[in-house]
Amino acid sequence: MKLVLISLFSVFSLCLNAQPYFYQSNEIVMEKDGENLLLAWAGGVNSPQMSAIDFNLDGLMDLILFDRTDSNIVLLRNTGSGGTQAYRYDFKNEKNFPRMRLWSLFRDFNNDGLMDIFTGGAAICKIYENTSTENNISFSFFDTLQTDVGSSSGGAVYASKPDIPVIDDIDGDGDLDWLGFHSFGTSVVYYENQGTPEVPEFHWNTNCWGDFIEDGFTNTITLNGCTSSLPPAKSTSGMHGASTLAVYDLDNDGDKELFIGDFTYNEMLMLTNGGSPETASMVSMDSAYPALDIPIDVRFPAIYFADVDQDGETDMVCSPNASNFDSPNAESMWFYKNHGTSNLPDFQFETKNVLQGQMIEVGRDAKPEFYDYNGDGLLDLFVGNHHRYLDGVKKSSLTLYENVGTISSPSFKFITDDFGGFSSLSLGEGMDPSFGDLDNDGDLDLVIGMSEGGLHYFENNPTGSVSVFSLTTTNYFGIDVGDFASPELFDINGDNLLDLIIGEKEGHLNYYKNNGTASIPDFDLENENLGNIFYKDVPRCTPNFFYDADTLKLMLGTKDEGLQFYDHIGVSATDTFQLVNPSITGTVKKYNTSGALADIDDDGYPDLVVGLLRGGMHFYQGLSPNNIGLNEEVNSTMWKVYPNPSSSVVHVKGDKVPDEINIYNLQGQLVSHNRNTSKVEISNLKSGIYILSISDGHSVFTESIIKE
User: How many CA atoms lie within 13 A of 283 on its CB side?
Assistant: First the structure.
């Protein structure tokens, strides 16, 4: 059996004739406002939940962002250089984390120095123990969070799906306790951990921690409002809404202040604890925290604490906990730098998009498309979106990154997040672009699909070589495919006329045949389910047709099945497209994927940009495995390659010393040859990505490495 394994870059085959492979990469330079976007290809964030964890086990605390929007993670590796620009997107370790849902907090429950996972489920809290060893991070399911309340033998602690609970040492005894609203309550339930680090035991302590009551319909707080300390009981009326909780000892008196964010409000409440670690008592409230600085103004706010800028003091970040369309999605990481100490913090506002500002971020639903808009022979990058939500206003637009590199070394510069001023044209929400020459004048025009299901046509009347698009026809040909129209201009029937193939919410490919001419198109619906793809498998489908040599193929983005590839493309009602890849490695867990293919570095292999629900993108570079001997049978021996990235030496650990270790650059050139050693010197190599080929004399294992 032939198998290719390049774990660091999520390599996958398209099964094309030329046998190109793709691997995930951060190498393409993206620039904005004179600075490189250091986290450009991290995929964006909308509702990030931040925790600190050393996920690469190098002794430096990294950051992990779990995004409620799509239940995916963004790993930010700490390089140790200090400041908020010390992080790099690390996708290679994503596969080592379990699937998490709704919310995720990383806390060390067994005091072994490793951060474990507490995450949501069906109104429960799941715990995954960090079982990492040496250089490999791993997690194993430990248990659901149990308590002595609920039945004769206890039961699971209730964890409201939309809430974020507190998992912290509330009473100062060195272990983790639990605070959370009960499903039918307006007060906070406290479960005290009375067990050991190895065997935690969460016992109900009080149904009204802090002695306060929250109004059932507003975020009004009544101090000293508790009337009962009985355990939480089931009720048939008065549902708890949704709230986020966080604690921090702001005044260094040993007890925890409490932060509350509510679903329908933008303010963060802070309740001062005048009690003790054992018996909390909230005595005053800041109703728009922090009152002495710029108050938090985020829909359904949630607070997280970590040393974000690596200065040794704990900072504060606030993000929306909502995953709906009416929460900030382009500026959703409000950063309050600690100008005091971790014991006596002084949190001062600095920016609304810490870390996020270093990413490609178009808000929600990135829809990429390559097009040379200025006629310089270099493909530029356009990105549509559903909307950007800033300062309470939704705007759908096209973002332009101009290619300012060379034909073989692309580099993109941010030009505008509202190309052509399209957001002011009152076209509706959602913009999914497709370019094609519809009037036979030698330049490419533009069709934009909208969330409401219709299309708009923009004619290109260039000024010199620079494209200038003018809105010519709204509701183009009266087409309406339902919701989330994703158009593709492509001559699918080979008659030299551009047809329209439109994906949509329900998962159908709508084929509109061009029955007009090259100068005057006339689109008529020919087939509402082109290719007979089972629609439930590909909701929110986004088509991208391409030729592999002489064979027509389809790349299809989906709502929650990643990118899929099909062949046996035909246009008759009986033609059924054949699935080549059921899901592409590295995109299978990504939501609302939308791909754009182009050979942007002129190496003969197509590269791939993938837009995501969170408003950002991933980049996958094309590569031929045949150039560097990757098409080999892989031995079952598992070699461990570390450290990775590295600036000087790479070690290869297995059950024997490798017979041969070769290093290739991405052009397939051999740059280092080593025999009978498990240590490879790479200090003489230029910074970049390389392929390590390890042979035991019988088979070959490959691993991508980064030379810093």
Answer: 9
Annotate 231-251 with b (16+ C-beta within 10 A) or e (fewer): ebeeeeeeebbbbbbbbbbbe
Query: What is the total residue count of the chain?
Result: 708
Q: Find all residues with CB under 8 Å of 478, minimum gap 6, and list them.
A: none
Angle, CA of 407, 411 and 415, to the nearest 5°: 120
One-character DSSP codes across 197-258: SSS--EEEEESSTBSEEE-SSSS-EEET-----PPP---SS-----EEEEEE-SSSSSS-EE
**Per-residue pLDDT tens for 388-409?**
987 788 999 999 999 999 999 9
**Cα separation, 558 vs 592, whole angstroms:** 6
CB 173 within 8 A of CB 180: no
Neighbours of 604 (CB within 10 A): 10
* CA atoms within a 13 Å half-sphere pointing along the CA-CB vector of 167: 25
* DSSP string of 473-492, one letter each residue: ESSGGG---SSS-EEEEE--
pLDDT higher than threshold 80 for residue 325: no
* Three-state secondary structure call for residue 356: helix
Instruction: Look up residue 44 and give its two tokens.
Output: 């964006």
